[in-house]
Structures are given as structure tokens and as C-alpha cells.
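Pasting as-is:
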Amino acid sequence: MSSPQPVLTPADTFCHQLSLSTADKLKFLLCSVFLVPVRLCLALLVAFLIWLSSRLGLLYRDTDTWDDRPQQGWRKVFQNCMWTTSGYIIFWALGFRVSIVGQQAPRSQAPVLIVAPHTSFLDVFTIALCYSSPVARVENRATPVLWAPQAVGNTIFVDRRSADSRQEAMNAILARARSPLAWPQIFIFSEGTTTNGRALIRFQTGGFKAGVPVQPVTIQYSRPDLTTWTRDQPHRFIHSILLIMANPVNQVTLHFLPVYSPDQEEIANPVLYAQNVQKMMAESLAVPATDIQRAEFVIENKKVT
């Protein structure tokens, strides 16, 4: 008989300890001399190209009507340029190979992409790999440089501390998911925060309330010890990014799972819909599906056990 899986606690999912072997330390020390300067220069160049393509796509925009319709014509060209440079090209500059498993469904089959686990600051670049529009924190709107690609990508912003903002974001998700217009797919990290990837924590229901089919997408890194970025960890961002750039070969894998079409019970109950998609993705990743969530994100629509 197989032994029962240990019960995970929030401390098990929101902590990370970076522990390197002696061989790793020697490898990173030697490779950092050659790889870090080159990759840093490439990353800065690509960051400039991301900003430039975004700013060109935003020229002469009407901020009041910008998110009323999807981009067309020359603006769509620059939007696609932004996604290409902030997806495949930035990963290449940082020393990553991008592996795609499965096939991304068109928007007509799955208007929403449900993505997990959310374990790294690098996950932001997977949004561009999917050429999709994310739901993001409103604080990102004021981030220097990054605000432009998020604006041209038709990001849906939400202030999780504001009930009115959450409702506005929910209305935008519902409208886009059900719209006949050619919007980009909506990209949602359903866990709502970063974890260490040991389990899938509770899925928020925002991506499921429209009652439309969704495509689950999983993200995995070849060196999660280097890429993981979550709440409780002793090392800083600079340590992670330098180690990532000093690693000779990195890989990120996006696995597009089959489109999940809800039945009538799931359409009527977004909590059940979210739970079933979470279980499907957990099985694919071979990790537990849990009801854990960060206490500060407890707002409403609590799941039933």
C-alpha cells in the first residue's frame, strides 16, 4: 500500500531555501565571468526593444477608449513585436531554451488560459510566449519601463485591496471572455500569488466565472532552485538573477493541456469549476491540489471542501 501524502501547510508552500552544492558554486563562479556580462548586456538591449515596440504601439492613443476594442492594423503589429521580444527573445538573452509541449488552442476554443504553478518572477515572460493579455496588480501600472508593454498588451489591472477594483476587473474578464471580437486570450495565474511549486494552492474563481472553456497551462523550470521566488526566503532578487545568468543552460517548459469545457454544474458553480481544473493540472504536475491560500488574499467565494 502506498503511504499517505503528508499534509502541507502554508509554510510548506510559501518558503524557499537556496542551497547550492560545491560543484554548483564552482560552476557559477567560473561561468559568471563570461556569461553574466554578455547576458546582462543582451537583456538590457532586449528590454529597450520591448519598451520601444510598446511605446510605438501606444503612439497617439486615446487612453479613455484604449481597452474598449482589441488592437488592429499597425498597433497590432507593434503589440506582436512586444510579445515576441518579451517572450522568446528575452528568454534566449537570459540563457533559456523554451520548450512547448502540446498546442495552444485558439481563442475561439478557449478564451481563457489558466496558468500554474506561479513560482517565479520569470513567469511574466510566459505571458508573452502565449501572446495573451494578463490580469495583473494595479501597482504594475506605475512600474517604470514595464508599464508600456502592459498597456499595449491590454492588461486587465486589479487592486486586490479594493472591492470596487476587483469588481471592475471581474466585469472586464467576463466581457472579454464572452466577446465576439478578436481579443487576445486572457492569461490568469489562478493561484493569485507565487509559491515554491510543491503544491497547487487554491485557485481563485475569476477565470472561471464566465463559464467558458479554458485551457490549462503548466510552467516548469529546469532549475527551480534558482528560479523560485516566493514570500519567505532569505536570498534577494539580485542573487537569483545572477545565478540564473551564470547557469550555462536553463530551460522553461510550457505544457498546454487539453481544453477543459465545463458542464452545466460547473458553469453554475465557478468554485467547483476551479477545483476540477486545479485537480487536472495537479495530476499533470504530479503535485497535490490543496486548499491553501495566503491569508491576506482571503476575500470571498471561499471554496467548500
